[in-house]
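Subject: for your reference before the review

Hello V.,

The reviewers asked for a structural picture of the protein, and I figured it would be easier to keep everything in one thread rather than splitting it across files. Below is the amino acid sequence we used in the manuscript, unchanged from the supplementary table.
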Amino acid sequence: MVITGSIGLAPILRQIGLSATINQLKPFELKPWEEQIAVGCLEALANNYGIIFKEGVCELMIKKLGCNIPHHVQLYFDSIYEYCIMLNSMHCSKEIAKKVYKESMLSTKGHAELNHYEERIKMVLGKELFPFTLDILTETAVTGYLSKEAMDFYCNEIESGKDEVLRKVLSLLEHDGYLKHEKKGYVFISKLLQDWWKGSFGTYFIPAAKRRIK
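And here is what came back from the structure prediction:
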């Protein structure tokens, strides 16, 4: 029996006290590709669909994504393929790759493909913790990292159990591939997800450092 899904099963069961029910299951994580593998995938797809990448395009695509999640690599290629079909030209330059990233990957189509990142937070953490989680993710997307000072600021809005709430939220965000911890604080693992999140929620967002604490 194989159980698959983009949402980590362990955090859900831990939240309701049923972690022991999966002791007999062995987790298998489909990790992001190494750059060499991701470039190889893009080149193989290009060869199969007749796309001609100019020098440096594949490397640019990998840099734009920031993390070579297999689905995102294939989604980027598919967006470029559709754009080339529309142009009636199968040659893809760096300029085209940049344009497709901005106008397709981060557009309405991109929202449809990436909306599950927002939806699964609501599903796992519920409506009560979603606003807090939304704040710290948007803070990270807009400023580039989530500092301890910013975490303390948002934790002030929690009425009780601040440490437990923060531990639960950060554990989920790390487990499910949103954030990772670095010296300066938490940062997005995927640049695509960071850019998408910033575009979706960051327009009128005011970072913690610029808010007035009454």
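For the response letter, the relevant points are probably these. The beta strands are 52-53, 91-92, 179-182, 185-188. The first strand starts at residue 52 and ends at 53.

Happy to draft the paragraph if you're swamped.

O.
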